[in-house]
Amino acid sequence: MPPGNGSASMAIPVVDFSSWKNTQDEASRLRTAHELVKACQTVGFVYIINHSLPKSVLDEAFDWVKRLFNLPEEEKMRAPHPEGWAVHRGYSWPGLEKVSQTMSTGNDEEAKRKLREVPDVKEVYDIGSDENTEQPNQWIPDEALPGFRTFMIKFYWECWAVGEELLRALAIGLNLEDDSYLVDKHSGHGNQLRLLHYLPVPAEDLEKERTTRCPAHTDWSSLTMLFQDDCGGLEVEDVSRPGTFVPATPLKNAIVVNVGDLLQMWSNDQLRSTNHRVRMPPLADRYEGPDRMTRERFSIPYFISPDPTSVIECIPSFTSQQQIGIAKAQVTTKQKAIRLLDLTSSEMSSLPKDTPVYEGVGKMFVGVPMSTVDKRLVAEKAELKSDVSGLEKKLSSLEMTHKNSMEHYERFVKSGERGTDEALFNRTKKGMFRMKDEDSELYCYSCKPVTVQNTLHRLDIQRFPDSVRNFGSETYWLDQSLRQRSATLMTSECHWSLVMFTSGIQTRCMP
C-alpha cells in the first residue's frame, strides 16, 4: 500500500508486473491482468511496479528533463509550440497552456468561476513519433543540448513497449478473445511524451488560488503512464466521494497508470477515467526558503492514444442491456474540420459549470457549418434509414434549422453583448443550457468528442425553433450525460445525430 493514502480514503492499488514478464507462467500473468483490470474498474489509477523500464533509464530521463528546462529561455524558444490548436509539439512557456475542463469539484460556483481565471504555472515540452507527419516534432537544436533528441526518441519507444504490455494485459484481464484487440488499434505513432516542469511559486499564491499547478481534469487518451519525481502533488478524486481528492504519493521507480476517456468509452464505462489534479506537495515537503516558495516539480507523462483511423466502439462483450452507455454508437476517430472561437477569460468564466473547453490556449470548439456535412448526408442518411427507426424525420428537421447556427453564434459572441439581458445561460434538468438574444434562442449542449487527436474538448452548438425544440421523452441527445440513457434505440439515434451535426466526424450505427 503506498504511503499517504490513509485508511479512511480511497487507496490507489499497486500491481506488481514482475510475474507478467514471465511468459511461461500463464496463471501468474492472468492473475496480474485481472489485478490491473480491477484497479482500472474501481479507481481508474494504479501504481505499476517491477515493470520493464530500468531505474537507470528513468534516472537519465529526469536528468535530461532538468537539463532541458535549465536552458536559457532563448534556447528553449528555438523549438516553440506552434501557434494554433492543431499541433502539440515543442516548448510551451509558463502561462501558454491551461487545462480548462471544469470537473465535479463540489457545488461552489464562485470557486469554479475563479478557477477558470487562475493560470497554470508550468512549462512543457511535447514530443511524439518522428513518423507522425500530422504532428511534427519541434526539436531543440543539437548544439543547444547535445544528445537530448537521441535519448528522447529512444525513451519514447521504450515507454511504448511498456504501454503495449499494459494494453495486452487489459485485454486479457477483460477476457477478450483476442489479446491484441487494443494493441492493434495503437501503432504508437499517435502517442505523446510530455516533459513537465512546475515552477517554484509563493505558497500563498497556491493557498489563495491565485495560481495553480494543474486543475482537475480527466485525460482524453486511452491510457496515461506517469513518471513522478519525489516532490509529490498529484491528487486523484475519490470515486466514492466526488470533490474529495487523495494524494498519489510518489513511489520510487513506479509508473502511475490511469485510464483515459477513450478507454472508458471502449469499455462502455467498465473502466474508469478518473479526475485528477496537481496541487501543492505534502506539508512536510512544501516550502523552500524564508519566502515560503514551493519546491519545483518535474514529471513525465506518456499519453497512449489510438491511431486516427481507429474506430471507437464498445467492446462486444460490454454491449448487454445491463451495460448501457455508448454501446450502440460507433465512430471513427479521425477528426474533421472544426472551427475555433476565441474566448476571453471573462467569457470563459461565464460558461456553465460543465462546459468542456479546449485545454490549450483559451479557445473552445463549436460545431462546423452545415456545408461540411452536406455531401455526407445524401449517402449516409440512406444507410442509416434502414438501421435506425425514426431518425430520417429528425435529420430532415435538423438539416433545415442548423444551416445558419454557426454564423449566428459567431455574431452573437463577437458582438460583445453578453450581459444578463442579452445572454442568459440557464441550466436545465437535462444538463443543457439556453442562450437568448433579441433574434432567436440557441440551445447548446456539451459532450465528450469522439476523436483522438490533440486531446480535444469542445462546446457544441445547435439552434432549434419552437417546432423542432421538443421531442418529448426522445430528447436524449440534448442531454449532456449520454452514458446515463435508458436501454433504448434512442441512445444510438441521438449519439449519431449529435456527432454528425456538430463535429463532422464520420459515423455509422451498429446493427
UniProtKB/TrEMBL annotation:
SUPFAM superfamilies: Clavaminate synthase-like, Prefoldin. Keywords: Dioxygenase, Iron, Metal-binding, Oxidoreductase. Residues 189-306 form the Fe2OG dioxygenase domain. The keyword Iron applies. One of its GO terms (biological process) is small molecule biosynthetic process. Pfam families: 2OG-FeII_Oxy (PF03171), DIOX_N (PF14226), Prefoldin_2 (PF01920). One of its GO terms (molecular function) is unfolded protein binding. One of its GO terms (cellular component) is prefoldin complex. PANTHER family: FI07970P-RELATED (PTHR10209:SF881), OXIDOREDUCTASE, 2OG-FE II OXYGENASE FAMILY PROTEIN (PTHR10209). Belongs to the iron/ascorbate-dependent oxidoreductase family. Belongs to the prefoldin subunit beta family. This is Non-heme dioxygenase N-terminal domain. It comes from Aspergillus oryzae (Yellow koji mold).
